[in-house]
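@here heads up, posting the sequence + SMILES for the fe (ii) ion run so it's all in one place. Ping me if the SMILES looks off, I pulled it from an old spreadsheet.
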Amino acid sequence: MQPHTMTLPGDAAEYVVTQHYDQYSDVEHGTWKTLYERRMEQLSTHACKEYLEGLRVLGMRAERMPVISDINKTLQTRTNWMLLPVSGFLPGRTFFDLLAARVFPVTTYIRKPDSLDYTPEPDIFHDIFGHVPMHAHKVFADYLQAFAQIARQITNDADQERLGRLFWYTVEFGLIREGSDVKMYGSGVISSVKEGDNVVHRGCKIHDFSLEEVLDTHVKVDELQPTLFAIENFEQIYEATKEARKVFGV
Ligand SMILES: [Fe+2]
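bot reply: prediction finished. Complex structure tokens:
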């Protein structure tokens, strides 16, 4: 199914755009290539094996920006997730309604060559290179939906903020143990040189994942992460959503 033929939840349809692939310039493809190659220098040894496998099976490559409809063909067969091109940030409720339906909104534009390290809003590099390879992993894919099913039921600000920390310290900044190593799977560490270096050079503390501690750990959005959490396996965070249901009474 293509995004335009499906029934979208809530007001999501208002945000849908088309990826005009033939309108990307050589400069934009070049920016993708620079970002991709720069991150792979570190990720080939410091990203988790599930992320690297996702990158491979989804056919992503440095030379060209990704074609969303091509990724969808593989992703739908593998984990029944679908990417939906959107104009930018979505309201929280819309975002989680989509995720609960296994639809992941992605932007189609790419940052400018003079601001490779900083994009005020998510762009296609963060959204697709950073997030989407993990969506090809069955347990992570189920975790993301389970998280969203909880998030969309929470309406008070304090609980939304607390639950948001689980998203932040897993989907955005998650780490995982592989033997005696710690590897990256969260899009924030995957897509950012500075955040990646902060993990590799141990600028941050790395704690074992605990739902209780994650929910109590404030999020820092404007500085390098001081504390991150390493899971043992993806089943651990899937199981944590069952615990989170009890914590938040949903
Ligand atoms: Fe993100």
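MO: Residues 122, 126, 131, 172, 187 surround fe (ii) ion (CB under 6 Å).
MO: One more: The chain has a mean pLDDT of 95.
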